[in-house]
Amino acid sequence: MNVGIVGLGLIGGSMALDLRKRGFADRVYGVENVELNAEAAVRLGLADEICGLEACVDASDVIVLAIPVGDAAALLPRVLDLVDGTSKVVLDVCSIKEVMCLAATGHPARGRYVATHPMAGTEYSGPWAAMPGLFDGRACIFCDAADSDADAVDVAGRLYDALNMRVSSISSVAHDMHVAYVSHISHVTSFALALTVLDKEKDEKHIFDLASGGFSSTVRLAKSSADMWVPILSRNRENVLQVIDTYIDKMREFRDAIDAGDEAGIRELIEDANRIKRIIR
Q: What does the pLDDT look like over 130-139, one tens digit per residue?
């Protein structure tokens, strides 16, 4: 099995490492438009060869789009043009899915595309961020799988099985709503917290000296790439806005209770939030 990966950053690069190490991929072809990233991907062993899109698709049995969602949605129809009439399989790893599925709707090769979202990552980006074992034990979501050919879904399932991921299926619309609640709002609040601290604390040394583990873990996501998160937040706008509004309401409840010196109210809010321990340990 030859695998072509468009975008050899954290997700694409980590995928390349384990797919080859675990015997799923005999050879990995990469597409990278940034020369520095292309050189690093080869030097780090993420790809056997860097080539153009058409050469990559021609040489590969599976093509993975691991680039920001705006670019991936624009590129998907072109890739489907290239695989039309073949048994090749196209996957993407973007964290919103409705825009990706809409980009493939009506295309003659729609069945060769499987919309997937491996729920794994870090705050770092680029080829240097790639790491083995990134996906082990994590969930991968397949969206609108009924619109994909059965054999294409089977290949995608075997690929993620090689990455030691557990697969579940959901509609693209439901996926985008749920990830806004459990992923996208986490990034927005982390960005906002970082901006708040930077605005209030002008002495960076104080931030460094006083930052505890709690602050570091909460603000970790604020290091994430704008190139990736701008298109995610803008293209999942309605779902993200709903959860931001709810978050603001909860912040206002905390503010009002603290302002009133209402310790019973503060306790009630915290203990209500403690229910999350039953879900996430």
A: 999 999 999 9
